[in-house]
Amino acid sequence: MGISFFVSKKYFFSKNRFNIVNFISLIASFVLVIASCSFFIVLSVFSGLKDFGLDYNKAFDPDIKITAQSLKTFKPTSNQIEWLSDNTDSFIFSKIIEEKTLLSSDGKNTYGNLVGVDASFRNVIEIDSVLSVGRWIKEDSSEIVVSYFMADKLNLGLFNYGGELSVSVPNKKNTSVLVKKPFRSLGFAPSGVYSSSNEKDQRNVFSSLGSAQSLLNKGAQEISAILIKPLKNPNVLMQKLKKVFNEGFYVKTREELNPTYYKMLNVESLILNILMALILTVAMFNSVGAIIILIVEKRKSIQTLLKIGATKKHIQNIFFKHGLMISITGGFLGLLSGILFVFLQKNYSFIKLTGTEIPYPVSFELTNVLSVFIILFVVCCTGSYLASKTSLQIKL
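Above: the chain's sequence. Below: its structure in token form.
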């Protein structure tokens, strides 16, 4: 504060003798407005696209998944089932059974992954968000839900009981090499179609748990996994689950189920922040140039200040604070502009994804605001300090 703040404020708000100094200062602030606004918008778009992609993950992956370490299927103990049933106020759970299968219809064949699900599955997994045509399967029915990819590949139609989907698995009970039926098969009627862009998820076909257990020749208690959706603190729940399913089981979160995907998102976010910080640094050079030009233009004023008792440190502080005023003002206006843009897009969706009516995804996150502000502040302080040091090198 003091004399350095007073003089720097005077330089910031008053007109200079040469119009070119005013013009360069305005350009420097405007460039920072554009840079910081773009920075925040790009981060918000990335967050929106990330959330958009994660929404599809939620349609196929649970918050927590419990599987056996060495077996494809397992039977939960009575104590484990009792504990799960007694704690439904803390979470919702669903039991599933999975198996690789051969799918046949209308003379066409392909492989798929049969997923038998119980009645609670839709409460744990957000499958309804990607169900596009038809309806979900009824409990203990011979119905099945497939992807668009499977429906097209096998020429399937909904509720076409004359052209049912045949699901086959190896008949492991037959040991004779002359066996006539090496596969066990069961017919299903497609009741719904879901959409997915992930090739692995496109191979999933969903049936009732009982039908899948019958086809796979498994008992009513045999399952492949337990899916859990926390209703309270997930970290506390994870600790409890690991105690209950302590030996011979994996208890994994969604992030642990897809480690590569989440690592990729983190790396992309880091690279994006670095690139935008570099762009902001380049934009900051305009402010550095404006400060240096102002220092040259104010040589006589500097001489006057030195004669009345100001030190070179005071002179440096004057131009340092002036640089901060130029930079912070431009950056703050740009950040506000970016926040306004994201707010309008999120609420009024005036930009759509090409060829669709889907709003271009954006997400307003406080972390993005803090990232832009912190990087802007560091870059502005560094640039203003380096530019203000020029005042110490001027021969008066």
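The longest strand covers residues 91-105.
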